[in-house]
Design a protein that fits this description.
- The chain has about 240 residues and is an alpha+beta fold.
- It has seven helices and seven strands, in the order H-E-E-H-H-E-E-E-H-E-E-H-H-H.
- Strand 1 and strand 2 form a beta hairpin.
């Protein structure tokens, strides 16, 4: 047969397009390998950090007689709580712990203090009411410190809490006694005042203000001796 023979590239010459695709594939494989290595390292670091956190928590549980707990960085989750029969233990992560266990009236203040501690990365510290293991309300003093990573960001919070219910109840009982005594003194027809150990007057009953026509602050500032006859005042000074 006659005709023009077909010209083919020598066998040793490579196709430039094929070589470019090969280089791109190699680069993609290299990038993928690097990313996979980075992900593996991050996973290993995260697992190591989790083990370290758990070890710290177990050390706190062993060393403390108080409630100890772990909270997530933003306080949205209670990760674990060992409550020493004061509050119900939490072994599984709970996203509703604050809402379920802190008195509704105290929750806004608790969250405000929490948010300020997160913003400033400082210690959280507060007394508030909490639901006890028997379902009744008690008082706790709670304190938590932030655990920071190498970049200074909060990883989680370690906390401890004490049962201060008995002290708060005693304080409330004392305040009630003071309120009852104040009511009695306010109701008596006699003029009554009380002083601190240093002699500074801290109470006049209403009969004093009615008798003198002066307010409590005016009586306190002017001194009660102005209403006592000088001869009687000298006699009292002798005693």
């Amino acid at each position: 047969m006659s005709g023009t023979p077909t010209t083919r590239p020598p066998a040793h010459q490579a196709d430039p397009a094929f070589e470019q695709k090969l280089r791109e594939m190699n680069e993609a494989l290299l990038v993928s390998s690097v990313k996979q290595h980075e992900l593996t390292e991050k996973a290993e670091k995260a697992e190591l950090a989790a083990h370290e956190s758990e070890a710290r928590f177990r050390a706190l549980v062993t060393a403390s007689s108080d409630v100890v707990y772990r909270m997530s960085a933003d306080w949205s989750e209670m990760r674990r709580l060992d409550a020493r029969n004061f509050i119900a233990d939490t072994e599984q992560t709970s996203g509703t712990w604050l809402q379920e266990n802190i008195h509704p009236d105290d929750q806004p203040h608790v969250l405000a203090v929490v948010n300020e501690a997160i913003r400033t990365k400082t210690i959280f510290e507060l007394e508030h009411r909490v639901r006890r293991v028997d379902g009744t309300l008690g008082w706790t003093f709670s304190r938590a410190v932030p655990l920071l990573d190498a970049q200074g960001e909060i990883v989680e919070w370690f906390g401890a809490a004490s049962d201060v219910t008995e002290r708060r109840q005693s304080e409330e009982a004392l305040h009630q006694i003071e309120r009852n005594l104040r009511f009695i003194m306010d109701s008596m027809p006699q003029k009554i005042f009380t002083t601190k150990p240093d002699g500074d007057i801290d109470y006049f009953n209403p009969q004093w203000t009615e008798f003198t026509g002066m307010s409590f602050q005016q009586l306190k500032d002017s001194g009660w001796t102005r209403f006592v006859h000088p001869d009687d005042l000298d006699e009292k000074a002798k005693h």
